[in-house]
Amino acid sequence: MVERRLLLAGAAALMAEPAAAAGLGDFSLTRLEGGALPLAEFAGRVVLVVNTASFCGYTHQYAALQALHDR
User: Fold this and answer.
1) Which of 14-18, 32-36, 52-56 has the highest mean pLDDT?
2) pTM for the predicted model, two decimal places
3) Mind telling me the catalytic residues?
């Protein structure tokens, strides 16, 4: 009986409609000076997002990331 319930639950899950995936353009970031920065502003452009803490192990890469930004 348990196996039948599992089979029915699995079949129901496979038949369910998947949720629509949100695109990156649907999200916003908070600007350093406040206010929203919609990612839709960058549509069609290459964007590199780097999320690190000030004193994490990747701090030594800041100079290289700044050079990449300056290009």
Assistant:
1) 32-36
2) 0.46
3) 56
